[in-house]
Hints:
By secondary structure, the chain is α+β, with helices and mostly antiparallel strands.
Amino acid sequence: xxxxxxxxxxxxxxxxxxxxxGFYPSFxxxxxxxxxxxxxxxxxxxxxxxxxxxxxxxxxxIQFLNKTKSQLRLFLADDQxxxxxxxxxRLFPNNKQEELREKIARTYQPLQxxxxxxxxxxxxxxxxxxxxVLNYSLQCFDGKILVMSFFEMFRDNSVDGPAIAIDLxxxxxxKDFYLKEIEGAIKKGTRD
Length: 192
């Protein structure tokens, strides 16, 4: 079961403070396996790349994709646009150009391969390439739990930003924000 890390003091004023399920000093501390196992319908992921994460949680992702009517949508910055790719390179300076493009591709190619190998509908995975840089990372599970993390604009060797888990069922304004962002990403993005 997804363990909720309770906050000792409210972070948001008003009635929305109970919408914060947890604050994590590092996105790596989120119980991703539990979230993935408990998700039945949809997962939305917006990141620059997450190839190591996909590999680490491959079993849980495969179990999810095997569920009836499950769908995973990935939103990635379009590495084929020079102005976008140059910003991605600035954020990840330790990667050579081709290495960075491979990491982006390895975020979704293993999932495509799994679907093909198991004769599952390729429509279970939608990949959108966005024509701009990303300001944050988000992951949403069944439209109920939203995890947002912030990109470090200045980093050493690896990404390790903080993350917030939010219960969208008790935070209508945050749910509206999430839905608006996803709708915009679908409209502006290019299906890959």
